[in-house]
Design a protein that fits this description.
This protein has about 525 residues and is mainly alpha-helical. Helices cover about 45% and strands about 5% of the residues. Strands 1-2-4-3 form a 4-stranded antiparallel sheet. The protein has a two-stranded antiparallel ribbon with strand order 5-6.
């Protein structure tokens, strides 16, 4: 691999743009070309520029061999619009770069991108203050309990040794911690997630990489806890989800040939039309799935792809910052792409391009994109999408290291509401909760046993008797009388046994009579 490796840091996308222009301008062979009965020095043909830049990008450490010729052509068109190059008549901007014998040249100075000035962050005074150990309120002393007498230390030697270290010892008081608010929970997840991302990227600061004002702590909490059994985010507002027909089309392709739930007739080329339907939906989105605000973050992660474990952890943390709707679409799309590429029963989706290459080229720009048109987003998106498609099962899991670092009451068990600290209750309330907490599931178990219509009557009576022996109080509260129990599981009516009867012989016993002779 050639080229200068640009590691993680602020404005990495701008550095890559400037580095590519520098390499292309410094290495492109220039010579004299004839056109319209005159010659032009220091020029190159469009096809020559595509060939050279394509090979340059493929050998560059920051891009790799997955760059296609079409992507190179798209980049040269951006160069022409940005006046990095111009045609031999000095035209640029409105013209379109042509991959043929059309002549181009470099202007006197190709414009380099300047690093943007980062806006001043707002004051953090509006952020909720985190819970501290001194956040408490005193509880009233119980009237019936006499206050403890404080023991006074009379040892002069002890006071001399320890008074400087700990000062005066105050009277112990019963206190109660203040409850943590939902806003504080969101702030905890936001601050810890951003700090963890900074450590994974190996940066001293995220200035120029991530603007904290664009991060929503509620999105992080939702992406961690509000997931289904397969780990996909569940949206509270169903209107933000994809249309039903898009989900059906994705399911049809992912489970081909057994995914056509709508029972539509399958004709030759049906799978290509389904792919076109899915692609049209994602390509019409107003913003890439990784959002414009996080573009620089994922561009920095691209420099870590040679370290698979580090890159995977960085993607895990970064994907938590996405809005839940974008994360859900991205996860479903990555799973679709992986299944389509691994499905041997799926017919070819294109006559000239392999299925894997087709999927990457179709959806890469829908995943990662820059708000600035003059950028290398198409080249960078290809490299990122390939990695995410291969490791999508791991990337969309909440990072275990981050969850171990965040500790507060309910952080491991609460999945719907914001957790709070424990409250002190009376003994009577404790006994009531103990009874309710144990009897409620048992009552539900008993009702489920009664409502089971597939269970034979004999087995149901047997299980009810076992339940009666194990939990007599719960059984008695449900069946206070024998009539109530008989209405659910009636006893088996005894069947009278018939009297023993001798077989009726039609003919009496008769002596044996030989019907034919054994004599010869």
């Amino acid at each position: 691999m050639d080229g200068k490796a640009i590691g993680p840091g602020p404005y990495r996308a701008t550095k890559l743009w400037n580095e590519t222009i520098k390499l292309f301008r410094g290495g492109m062979p220039l010579k004299r070309h004839w056109a319209h009965f005159r010659y032009y020095d220091c020029s190159f043909m469009g096809s020559e520029g595509v060939e050279y830049l394509h090979e340059l990008l493929r050998r560059n450490y920051n891009f790799g061999p997955e760059v296609t010729r079409y992507q190179t052509l798209q980049l040269l068109r951006k160069f022409l619009k940005a006046h990095v190059i111009e045609d031999i008549k000095g035209r640029h901007g409105t013209e379109d770069f042509e991959d043929n014998g059309h002549l181009y040249r470099f202007p006197t100075s190709s414009p380099m991108k300047s690093f943007p000035t980062r806006p001043v962050l707002r004051d953090s005074s509006d952020l909720p203050r985190l819970i501290r150990w001194d956040d408490y309120e005193e509880l009233p002393q119980r009237e019936n309990v006499a206050p403890l007498k404080s023991s006074v230390m009379t040892s002069d030697l002890w006071n001399k040794r320890h008074s400087v270290a700990i000062g005066d010892v105050n009277e112990c008081k019963l206190i109660r911690r203040k409850e943590i608010t939902p806003k504080q929970v969101d702030h905890i997840w936001k601050s810890m997630t951003v700090a963890h991302l900074q450590r994974v990227l190996g940066l001293h600061s995220l200035d120029g990489v991530l603007n904290p004002t664009h991060i929503n702590g509620k999105h992080i909490v939702h992406n961690v806890f509000s997931v289904n059994k397969t780990g996909i985010v569940v949206l509270e507002n169903k209107a933000e989800d994809m249309p039903y027909w898009v989900g059906s089309a994705m399911k049809c392709l992912a489970n081909w040939p057994n995914g056509n739930d709508s029972k539509q007739p399958v004709y030759p080329g049906f799978e290509r039309d389904v792919l076109r339907t899915v692609a049209d939906y994602f390509q019409r989105l107003k913003e890439p799935l990784l959002t414009f605000h996080l573009y620089e973050v994922f561009v920095n992660i691209l420099s870590l792809l040679h370290e698979q474990q580090v890159a995977t952890e960085a993607l895990q943390v970064s994907c938590l910052l996405l809005p839940p709707a974008s994360r859900r679409r991205l996860q479903l799309l990555m799973r679709l792409m992986a299944r389509v590429c691994q499905n041997p029963h799926l017919p070819p989706l294109n006559d000239a391009i392999a299925t894997r290459t087709l999927m990457v080229q179709t959806f890469s720009h829908c995943v990662l994109g820059s708000v600035d048109e003059m950028d290398l987003d198409e080249l960078l998106a290809t490299k990122l999408v390939v990695f995410m498609m291969e490791h999508h099962n791991t990337i969309f899991q909440a990072p275990s290291k981050l969850r171990c670092q965040i500790k507060y009451a309910g952080s491991d068990t609460d999945f719907s509401t914001s957790p709070a600290f424990c409250k002190q209750i009376s003994r009577v309330e404790c006994d009531e909760q103990k009874v309710v907490g144990t009897q409620t599931p048992l009552q539900a178990l008993l009702e489920g046993l009664i409502a089971d219509k597939e269970l034979p009557a004999k087995d149901k009576r047997k299980r009810l008797k076992q339940f009666q022996r194990s939990y007599p109080e719960v059984y008695r509260s449900r069946f206070p009388t024998e009539e109530s129990r008989a209405a659910v599981a009636p006893e088996k009516t005894p069947r009278l046994k018939p009297h023993l009867m001798f077989f009726n012989l039609k003919k009496p016993f008769q002596p044996f009579q030989r019907s034919w002779s054994f004599r010869a």
